[in-house]
Fold this sequence. Notes:
Layout: H1 4-25, H2 28-43, H3 53-75, H4 99-108, H5 111-117, H6 122-133, H7 138-145, H8 149-166, H9 174-189, H10 193-199, E1 200-209, E2 221-222, H11 224-237, E3 242-249, E4 252-259, E5 262-272, E6 275-282, H12 285-288
Parallel strand pairs: 1-6
Antiparallel strand pairs: 1-2, 3-4, 4-5, 5-6
Amino acid sequence: MTTDTETDVFEEHRPVLLGVAYRMLGRVADAEDVVQEAWLRWSGADRSEVREPRAYLVRITTRLAIDRLRQVKARGETYIGPWLPEPYITDFGDTVPDTAERAVLADSVSLAVLVVLESLSPLERAVFVLREAFGYPYADIAVMLDRGESAVRQLAGRARKHVDERRTRYDVDPTQRRDLTERFLAAAADGDLEGLMSLLAPDVRLVGDSGGKSKAPLRVLETADKVSRFIVGAARKGVPDLSWHFLELNGGPAVIALSGDKPDSVFQLDVVDGRIQAVYIIRNPDKLRSLADV
């Protein structure tokens, strides 16, 4: 029988466990399932064998997430169009006062990084998440994954190299990103093609995720001309009973667009040197369910 104290211990660590599982899987529902399974393991564990509850819970959650990730890859699921992670609500509030630390946390859940992590092996992804996002020593990660420390260091090196080669370092200043987002939306609503072009980097990319269940580009759009023309065209078609508001998703400012009271899409921008480097649009209704009540 689980005691109130054991429940309290688990709930204390739930945010960390959810953070690990989400970074491993890129899917909120899957992450919540993994954390629930970790709770079942915790509630049935022999407490005499658990010296450090946090380490035990992170280890169980990581291993469950690896298993879930392997199942997804083994099924060879086909996805229509570009894939983006499910939006994840992040609100650091006053818990991360240090700017550098905030940047690390924001970076570890950014859409750009999570897309790159999809191409890692499950073990490489686990090592990257535990080391880069949560700062665990290699020795601790080795115990969690039941691997030698030298093997873990090799996995970490491969993962880090892979991520660094495939992502752009973007500005993490939330004020600048929000300002550019507001100007971007205003130019789109006004059909201001030149105004949009002035905000976009020449090699900007637009990634639209619909899963084939709503309208979005089925290929990544590149160049400021193509992206701006698509945005203006989409804005002209409009969304019935449109409203929108800002929220923090994946470590940075984002916009959720509502049709009536139903989430229609999520927009988020990556900014480099004061220009928009990437536009992410998530329209797959399955990925917007967790935002229905925000």
